[in-house]
Design goal:
The complex is a heterodimer of chains A (107) and B (291). With 107 residues, chain A is mainly alpha-helical. Helices cover 68% and strands 0% of the residues of chain A. Chain A has helices at residues 10-36, 44-65, 73-96. Chain A is flat, with a radius of gyration of 20 Å. The termini of chain A are far apart. Chain B has 291 residues and is of the alpha+beta class. Chain B has two domains: 18-117 and 221-290, Four Helix Bundle (Hemerythrin (Met), subunit A); 120-215, no CATH class. Chain B is built from seven helices and seven strands; from the N terminus they run αααβββββαββααα. Chain B has helices at residues 17-46, 59-84, 88-117, 193-197, 222-249, 255-258, 260-290; strands spanning 119-124, 129-141, 147-150, 157-162, 165-181, 201-206, 210-215. In chain B, strands 1, 2, 3, 4, 5, 6 and 7 form a seven-stranded antiparallel β-sheet that branches. The longest helix of chain B has 31 residues, at 260-290. The radius of gyration of chain B is 25 Å and the shape is elongated. Chain B starts with 16 loop residues before the first helix and ends with a helix. In chain B, 32% of the residues are buried. Chains A and B meet through helix 1, helix 2 and helix 3 of A and helix 1, helix 2 and helix 7 of B.
Chain lengths: 107, 291
């Protein structure tokens, strides 16, 4: 049985939501602090750190609010294909980053 | 005829049909936004050094919107949980909160769009650039030579029919609240120390001094183009989701009396969509506002 099919206790959901919201507050504040911090290495390291924090935030929403931590096998099957295609898309993006057509400006 | 598997799970998928449907739809949505994120990456890494803007968006407003969406995701979940425990009154309350939070989000987004729309970069004939928010423009009636003050920019000239006569107006001057810079690069990083020191004041520029005037709309540069595309598509999703949630909160809630389980499933499906919209914003906020 997936989590959404189990008997629900409203009070426990309110507690869960309070915890999720506090963590969202902390992660959002951390992202903002990181973006203003003087880390060095230009924007590359900052972007990586900020996106890593965003992934934590996304995990909370998907895992707890969307019940993805305890879903049915069919949902995971759909999402596995999505992840494969998404990785493929981003892989093509990375592959194309330095692939400037002849005659265009490179920097 | 009764539609099968609106409440009970199909034996082969283990899910009721609408739930499988929404997950397949969300999978396609991942690819839609994925394509635009891919475009963002290519535009950003392809931008010449120092030509990608930083600090152009208001982090405070972005943060407020992040928290509003996070709260709305929570109220959506609680609305569904209220249905599960058969507390219809609480469902109504939590979903009303979701609608209000969503409308506030859209209101803030509209304010941000308007702010970009009235923000102009004016290239001057002396090579300098005036940058700031539009306040007013003075136009001269070409026949009577009378001056007219307009509070929206109407281009270099415009025509207006009044009392059967066509009046032609020509731009005489523009007033903005901003500052003048020597080089275009000075406008790219608004988080730099130099940019923070800039003093903004009311500037009136004669039309004869203006070489080119353009607002920070989608065609201004690749950043504003991808910013408006990504956030515009996201705002459309918010708008669509709000309409569905409003329907389920209002006229659609009649189903609660006849088939509460099916109604609860509808709330779950709309909630999954809403959480996805929140997920997209979780990445849009850092990508556009913070980096």
């Amino acid at each position: 049985m997936s989590e959404s099919e189990q008997p629900v206790d409203l009070k426990s959901y309110i507690r869960l939501c309070a915890v999720v919201f506090v963590v969202v507050l902390i992660t959002t504040a951390s992202m903002i602090a990181t973006s203003y911090a003087n880390i060095g290495h230009g924007w590359t390291l900052k972007v990586a750190l900020i996106l890593a924090i965003a992934v934590v935030n996304a995990f909370l929403v998907a895992g707890y609010l969307m019940h993805l931590l305890s879903e049915k096998k069919m949902v995971y099957t759909v999402l596995i294909f999505t992840v494969i295609f998404f990785i493929g898309l981003m892989g093509l993006t990375m592959f194309a980053m330095n692939d400037f057509p002849p005659g265009t400006a490179t920097h | 005829m009764e539609i099968p598997y609106t409440v009970k799970n199909r034996p082969d998928t283990g899910l009721y049909n609408a739930k499988l449907g929404i997950w397949l739809f969300l999978a396609s949505e991942v690819m839609l936004f994925g394509g635009l994120f891919s475009a963002y990456i290519l535009l950003r890494v392809g931008a010449p050094a120092g030509e990608w803007p930083h600090g152009w968006l208001d982090v405070r407003l972005g943060t407020v919107n992040t928290l509003l969406l996070a709260l709305s995701a929570i109220t959506t979940l609680l609305a569904w949980a209220s249905c599960k425990v058969r507390e219809f009154g609480k469902f109504k309350f939590f979903h009303a909160c979701t609608i209000l939070l969503a409308l506030t989000f859209l209101g803030i987004k509209s304010y941000e769009y308007h702010d970009k729309w009235i923000h102009y970069e004016i290239q001057l004939n002396n090579g300098k650039i005036a940058d700031g928010h539009f306040e007013s423009a003075v136009y001269v009636n070409q026949a009577s030579k009378q001056e007219v003050e307009e509070h929206s920019y109407r281009g270099n000239s415009f025509s207006q029919v009044a009392g059967g006569t066509t009046n032609n107006y020509q731009l005489a001057s523009v007033t903005i609240h901003g500052h003048v810079v020597e080089k275009h690069e000075e406008l790219m990083d608004l988080r730099s120390e130099e940019a923070k020191k800039a003093v903004h004041k009311e500037l009136t520029i004669a039309a004869t001094d203006i070489k080119k005037m353009e607002n920070y709309g989608p065609r201004h540069n690749t950043f504003t183009a991808i910013y408006f595309t990504l956030t515009g598509l996201h705002a459309l999703h918010i708008f669509g989701g709000t309409l569905v949630i409003f329907y389920l909160w209002g006229p659609g809630s009649k189903m609660w009396k006849t088939d509460p389980e099916r109604f609860t499933n509808r709330i779950e499906v709309s909630g999954l969509f809403w959480h996805f919209v929140d997920l997209v914003w979780i990445f849009l906020f850092p990508v556009l506002y913070l980096t």
